[in-house]
Amino acid sequence: xxxxxxxxxxxxxxxxxxxxxxxxxxxxxxxxxxxxxxxxxxxxxxxxxxxxxxxxxxxxxxxxxxxxxxxxxxxxxxxxxxxxxxxxxxxxxxxxxxxxxxxxxxxxxxxxxxxxxxxxxxxxxxxxxxxxxxxxxxxxxxxxxxxxxxxxxxx
Length: 155
What we know:
Layout: E1 6-8, H1 16-19, E2 30-38, E3 47-52, E4 56-61, E5 82-83, H2 86-99, E6 107-109, E7 117-124, E8 130-136, H3 141-154
Parallel strand pairs: 6-8
Antiparallel strand pairs: 1-6, 2-3, 2-7, 3-4, 4-5, 7-8
Helix pairs in contact: 2-3
């Protein structure tokens, strides 16, 4: 595949931190979940968020505690962290579609890259089907923008 990417099934030997990702069903009205899990031992940059159709975004960052093996040690808040403007939600939908997430293989890897993160994108399509893709050390415009959304919402 172009760009040195390898696509396929999720390896059975995938890291335990990825096995512990959030795999709960997307809540009603939610269409996108993003998770960032560092490959480094320190989990404090790990975060996850869920975006609803109406722009409500629920963000959970790992706590300041660097101990433990769990990728996330905090839950989503009860109230939205922020509400994204409709134009931003539209931009994200276009990026998700342009990247072909809904039809992608469940695992996409850039095997020649050192360090980095696992970034997991879960989408609910217009047909109601939910599809998850685990990106391992991959950099593309979609993932960079989703990472940015979480960082902006944090502050």
